[in-house]
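Box S1 | Example of a co-folding query
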Amino acid sequence: MASEVRGVVARAKGQPVSIETIVVPDPGSGEALVRIKTCGVCRTDLHYRDGAIGDGYPFLLGHEAAGVVEAVGDGVANVVPGDFVVVAWRAPCGSCRSCRRGRPWYCFDSQNAAQAMTLLDGTALSPALGIGAFTELTLVAAAQAVKVDPRARPEAAGLVGCGVMAGYGAAVNTGGVSEGDTMAVIGCGGVGCAAVAGGSLAGARRVIAVDVDPRKLEWAARFGATDVVDASATDPVDAIRALTDGFGADVVIEAVGLPSTYRQAFLARDLAGTLVQVGVPDPTMTVELEMIELFGRGGALKSSWYGDCLPSRDFPVLIDAYLKGRLDLDGFVTEVISMDQVEEAFAKMLRGEVLRSVVRM
Ligand SMILES: NC(=O)c1ccc[n+]([C@@H]2O[C@H](COP(=O)([O-])OP(=O)(O)OC[C@H]3O[C@@H](n4cnc5c(N)ncnc54)[C@H](O)[C@@H]3O)[C@@H](O)[C@H]2O)c1
Ligand SMILES: [Zn+2]
Ligand SMILES: [Zn+2]
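Box S1 (continued) | Returned holo structure for zinc ion
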């Protein structure tokens, strides 16, 4: 029988979110019902509320979640009821053109639940990033539920489901940061700080954190930044060069999503260095670069989608690093709130006061 639970819904563009009763079907073939324990508030939820990701209202927000599998449908082999899971917004299909080329971390046809969750009047909800986790129960494709060590605190573990994985993976998977490299991260919010943590775990010898907000630079230092640059006071390109013997960093991560910071990241690389763009631009933005510089500096200009992660491979690794005290996931949890405080959390996010507000259901 379908369940009725509470969930945080964005009904119309730019309007405050509301708590609604939602109807969650029992899991069908290949689906899993997950009892959500916690879910982080990510900027992407705000983008959904504000109409920047389409107009499929009503949206069921939330996508950075940890919970326990409540029930599974037919043909599910990866999880059983009682498993502690982090929910992923990528579940490779195994058969799209990217999966067939052996690159499932780009999967172009990621799996989601086939059945819709609805409002009481039957209106289908669009779940944020195919998850929808500011709710007591959510329905996902079973492959989206990734089993991890249940000793991890849910408030911290759930963050691996989006922001932490995106930043960590941007450094380690997309940027390929490894032992002895120099790296810089421009924009040290939740995603940038996770890139700092990832690069530092991977053995980067210099991790330069750049932000315009001194509070963010303090946080980045806690996650392993060896140097910090206040871009509101200093030119970040000059500063990064000065900190790398005048050459620039091997890998520069752009985690803001602006043309100005993209250009800084491009110029702050060493010759043949790598730029990783993880910040999401708005659709009107353009970048102008001199072609001779594109050619002359060489290297790679990459985008990182969800840290090029393979959730079933990477989530358990990050959770293990957390449990061994090597990855400070607790450091991302600025506050734990209740479902009716999501609007306040958006406001705090816009004022730069939090790395993550985490909703406990
Ligand atoms: N690629 C992906 O898969 C993926 C996944 C999640 C989030 N994101 C994107 O990553 C970006 C960062 O997300 P977040 O949650 O960390 O956001 P955030 O708002 O917490 O962090 C952005 C940071 O950039 C800083 N900043 C703003 N202007 C700057 C400037 N000119 N120079 C230097 N720093 C500046 C801010 O002070 C802030 O600390 C967003 O664009 C988000 O949409 C991408
Ligand atoms: Zn695929
Ligand atoms: Zn997110």
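The two ends are 22 Å apart (CA to CA). The chain has a mean pLDDT of 97.
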